[in-house]
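worker-03 picked up job from queue 'complexes'. Input manifest follows; four sequence lines, order preserved.
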Amino acid sequence: MVRLPLTPAELERGQRLGALLRRARGERSMLGTALDAGVSPETLRKIESGRVATPAFPTIAAIADVLGLSLDAVWAEINRADAAAPARSAHEHHAGERLAL
Amino acid sequence: MVRLPLTPAELERGQRLGALLRRARGERSMLGTALDAGVSPETLRKIESGRVATPAFPTIAAIADVLGLSLDAVWAEINRADAAAPARSAHEHHAGERLAL
DNA sequence: CATGACACCGATTGTAGTACCGGGGATAAC
DNA sequence: GTTATCCCCGGTACTACAATCGGTGTCATG
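worker-03 finished. Artifact:
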């Protein structure tokens, strides 16, 4: 394979990521949030709607920064319900447990 | 534009990200680290060598997880020397200051 | 010397992220 | 009715990532 299609588990994690960001945005406008984060409003909308499952690290970091979210907390949260679905490697042994800051 | 080419600032940030990860890996083998994180060894090598400037959020999160790194600390660190280079939006006002958990 | 394991590199392939362009709907103000 | 703002959506375009396949070099071991 050259670029593995996203697994169902990754797609669901993308959904949780989007829902988390939308919740954290609260009353703020999507447009202003996107501009403050330095990303396109369409990009933010696609991430929030879960249509972009694995966004770039700087993109999520910038958005989390604007929303006052901890990246570690975000990562831990969206992996909460992911235990039963092995990602792509048989080496997967314990993901989401070394999050202490 | 449709998909802006990476800016020099983003490329340099990618270099810092790679250097940081390589430093954090220490004596551990690149192969084992990549497999533990569930990513391809080539992918980890490209990230560490700075040839992939904006990796996916889950990719960096998985690697940081294996290395015991805080994502917030990583993001803050690689943005340290980035103040003089405006990213892509004039809205950029203060990046890397809301990292408290 | 040969073998194996590890790191590095160049080239290639295919999917996916980012962003722009319209258009649509809903609300509120003038 | 018009204007404005905000959110949502489908389609499109271009770049970048993720991964595989060879090949090269090194170092340790047999």
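worker-03 released lock.
The first helix of chain A runs from residue 8 to 25.
The mean pLDDT of chain A is 83.
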